[in-house]
Structures are given as C-alpha cells and as structure tokens.
Amino acid sequence: LVSTDWLEANLDKVVPVDGSWVMPFSRRDMRDEWLQNHIKHARYLEIESISMRHPILPHLLPSAEDFGKAMDTLGINKDSHVVVYDNSYLFSACRVYWMFKVFGHKNVSVLDGGLAKWVAEKRPTFSGMDDLSRLPKVANFELFNQQDLGKNIDESSLEYVLDARAPDRFTGKIPEPRPGVPSGQIPYSINTHFEDLVNRNPDSNAITLKPREELRAYFEQQGVDIQKPLITSCGSGVTAAVIYLALREIGAPRVSLYDGSWLDYASRVESPMWRDYDDFAFDAPTTPLTENDLRARFDARKAYLRRKQAEALGRNSDTQQPPSHKYRS
After folding, report:
1. d(CA 48, CA 44)
2. pLDDT higher than threshold 90 for residue 117
3. Which of 89, 239, 261, 284 is most solvent-facing, going by the fewest CB within 10 Å?
4. What is the pLDDT of residue 300?
5. What is the CATH number of domain 4-131+140-144?
6. What is the pLDDT of residue 296?
7. Same CATH topology for 4-131+140-144 and 151-197+209-328?
C-alpha cells in the first residue's frame, strides 16, 4: 500500500493506473468517469477488455501475450513502478494489482483510499486523455506459466480457502447475483468477507485497508495460519483480491487467487458444495495467540468440518477421508 501523501510526492516517478470496475448492473461507465476525473498521468486499464474470452466466466486472467500488448499500449514496462487505484471500493484495484503480480511485475502498489480519498483531500485531478504515443512500447513481461494455475487440492489444504463473499451468499441463504449459478460454498472454505478487512469513511466514501495489526488479529480470530498456503476466492475472482492484498500486507508468504472462483467451481458438475453452513467461530483472543493455540484452532476446525461432511454424506468421519477437488487457483 502507498498513501495519498506518498503518491503526490512521487507522481513523477511512478505510473498511476486506474483499474476501476463495477458490476454491469450498476450502469456506471468507468472509462468515462476516468476521462472526466483522474490522477495526473493515470492510464485506464479496463479489466474486461483484456480478459480471456470465456462463454461463462467473466474477466478471466488474460494470456501473457495479451497482457503484454495492453501494457505496451499503456507505456508500462517491467521496470515501471505501477500504482493502481480505483473509484470502485478498492476491490478492482486489488484485482489489477494481483494481475501484475501474476505476470512477474515486482514494483506494483495500491493507493490506499483510492480516488475517493484523493479527491476528498482536494488533491489535483485532471480530465481528458494523455498522449501515450510518445511512450516506448517495451513491456517485456515474462511468460506466464499456465500450469502454475492448476492445483490438486486435498482436504488438508482446502481448509485454507478463504471466501470473500458476503456471509449469506457463502452459506447459500441467498441466491448468487448471476442467474443460474448455484448457491453454497467450497467444502472446508472459510468465510472472510472482504468488507471485514477495510474501513469506509462515511464522509468521502473512501475505502482503506485496515491497519496491519487489526488484519493479523482478524485472521488469527478466524483460525487462519498465514504461514500456510492460502487460496482466496469470491464470486468470480475480483473481491478475492482484497484478501490477497491484505495477506500480502501482513507477510503471508504463499497466497494465490482462484481465478473464476465460485462461478467456475459451481459450474463444474463434479464439484461438491456445502450449504446452510453452521458458522464455526472462535472467541476473540484476550491475549496474543501462541503457535500451540493456533494449532489447536486448526485441529478443532478441521475436525468440525469433517463431521459436517460426514453428516452430509452419511459416513464415519473418523475412518473415511473427504474427496480431493481439482480447480484453478
């Protein structure tokens, strides 16, 4: 994360990128909003326009070639310090941040508070389009290894799938916003609503990530060991990026994002799904949790989830193991 103070002081050294995106039913034209009001020299990266085309799944990660071409057009190369912001509640900036990370871009940041905070602080904005034709077309992004997305996830690691959707969507109590998509959750996943990780300023409507200490306490309370491999998920792969950024901020070493997320998982006929999940919560710790405390929580959650699946399948949880599931992460 970088602050608005830092960005204003370093505008001539970085490449601002507006990654604003909203759900289609919002009827907002984010490109037009960028043209009318943006940070100096900000390029607009439209997530949908560079996404891999798919009959069901929206905004999938583009190919390395298509991503490189888009960066060429924007005058961004592998040495650029990219600062991503949005005007759409932080999550789309996090998604663009993740995309850069996937393609090996090392120097990329997210503007905390986005355009809303920038404007509320009366910092300068501009309209119209910069002339990018003068910029060099030398993106030079490393090739993306498609095999890195495919993982066989067994039950021991499925407990570390973190789902950013709202609790009622996670439990299956309300339908998914996309017609025809089943409700429910990936077995062994943990509901980590992305709004629990941010603060919203009621005056400016700016969304900022919570301080690192609060984020660490939140994940500890959820029983999440951030040193383990973690997979973030959501409805289609956008708000999951908020969890991704939060975990990176607190030093989680192995975090991946499930591109396509619930929409991809639920569209597969072989995917087991859970609904009407009884929330398994721990009391908030009164003192810092030790490694033994965390392990006890992990074991308790694992035993609970095994019992839940055993009840659903009518089998003995002590003698039979849950199935492994394969999906893109």
Report:
1. 12
2. yes
3. 284
4. 72
5. 3.40.250.10
6. 72
7. yes
* Cα radius of gyration rounded to whole Å, the chain: 20
Q: How many CB atoms lie within 10 A of CB 3?
A: 13
Q: Residues near 135 by Cβ (< 8 Å), separated by ≥ 6?
A: 74, 75
DSSP 8-state class, residue 207:
E
pTM of the predicted model over 0.70: yes
Q: What is the pLDDT of residue 89?
A: 85
**Encoded tokens for 329:** 């992460």
Query: How large is the average pLDDT for residues 241-266?
Result: 93
Catalytic residue IDs? 234
Phi, psi of 177 (to 5 degrees): -65, -20
What's the pLDDT band for 276 if we cut at 50, 70, 90? low
Are 85 and 18 in contact by the 8 Å Cβ rule? The answer is yes
How far, in Å, CA of 324 to CA of 154, rounded?
A: 4
Q: Could you tell me the CA-to-CA distances from 303 to 4, 201, 217, 292 in Å, in that order?
A: 45, 40, 23, 16
What are the domain boundaries of the chain?
4-131+140-144, 151-197+209-328
- For the domain spanning 151-197+209-328, the CATH number is 3.40.250.10
